[in-house]
Amino acid sequence: MNKNFETLEYSVEGDIGYLTFNRPKALNAISAQVIEDLIEFSEWAKDEKIKGLIVTGSGEKAFIAGADIKAMCSMDSKEATEFSARGQKATLLLENLPFPVIAAVNGFALGGGLEMALACDFMLASDNAVFGLPEASLGLVPGFGGTQRLAKIVGINRAKELIYTGRMVKIEEAKSMGLVLSSYADKTQLIEACVDLIKKSSKNSINAISVAKTALNKGLELSIEDGLKIESASFGEIFSSYDMKEGTQAFMEKRKPNFKGE
Ligand code: CAA
Q1: pTM above 0.90, yes or no
Q2: Is 142's C-beta closer than 6 angstroms to any atom of ligand 1?
Q3: Domains of the chain, earliest start first
Q4: pLDDT value for 6
Q5: How far apart are CA 65 and CA 79, in angstroms?
Q6: Is the beta carbon of 66 within 6 A of some atom in ligand 1?
Q7: Distance from the CA of 25 to the center of ligand 1, in angstroms?
Q8: Region 65-92: what's the mean pLDDT?
Q9: Distance 70 CA to ligand 1 centre (A)
Q10: Residue of 43, 115, 173, 225 marked active site
C-alpha cells in the first residue's frame, strides 16, 4: 500500500517497497519531523507483506546530508538528548523490520544520513556517493547510532579515524572498507541493482530470512555462546513453519518450493 508522510514517500511496486526521504531543498536533511515520520512509518511497515524495502533520498545529489543543522543550532541539551533518543528509536525500528532493507545511497550520506544507512541491512551506492561522519567539524558528536554501528562494519580503528577527522570518503574507498557492497553509474542503475538483489532473495522463504535477520542483528551484541543460543532457538522455531516443510519437501520431490512466508 502506498503511504505518504510530510517528509517521506512510500510506494510499493510488485512486492518491493520504496521509501524515499523527501526534503530535496535541504538535501534530505533529518529534521524532528523526518524522525517522527520514520518512526510512524516503521511501526506501520513491519506488517507490510513485501519481500524487501529500498531506502533512498529524493533527487540525484544526496541520500541524506545529515541531521538538520539549522534546526539543531538552537537546541539546548535537553532538546538535543530527546532529538538523539527519537533518532535512535527510528534507526532501531528501521534496523529490525522483518524483511531485507537496502540503503540505496544516491549521493551524500553524511552524519545522520550515514547513520540511517548504517541501520539498513547493507548499502549499495551510486558512483557519486560520499560518506562521512563530519559531526566533530561542527563541534558535535554523532547522535543517531554512528558511534555504535560504524565500528561494527569498518572496525574500531577506522571508525575512530573517520569520526576524529570527519573526512569525506569516496566510493572506491567506501567499498574497500566494506561500508558499501557495490556501486553503479547512476541512480537508475543503482535502484535496478537493489531490485535485482531483492528478487534473488525473494526466491527464498521471507520467513526464514526474517528469522535469520533477527539472529544476525541480536547476535552482534552478544557473546558467541549467547549468540549461538539465539541461533538454536531460531533453528528450532523455523521447524514449525510451513516454509520449512515446503522447502525440504520440494528438495526431495526435485521441484521448486512454493513458499508462503509463514
Ligand atoms: N542540515 C540542514 N540543511 C542542509 C544540510 C544539513 N545537514 N545539508 C545541506 N543543507 C542545505 C544547505 O543549507 C542548502 O540550503 P540553502 O540553499 O537554503 O542554503 C542546501 O541544503 C544545499 O546545500 P549546499 O548549498 O551546501 O550544497 P553543496 O553542494 O554546496 O554542499 C554538502 C553539499 C557538502 C553536503 C553540504 O551541504 C554540507 O556540508 N552539508 C552538511 C553536512 C553535515 O555536516 N552533516 C552532518 C550534520 S550533523 C549530524 O548529522 C548529527 C547527528 O548525527 C544526529
Answers
A1: yes
A2: yes
A3: 3-201 (3.90.226.10), 206-252 (1.10.12.10)
A4: 95
A5: 21
A6: yes
A7: 10
A8: 97
A9: 9
A10: 115
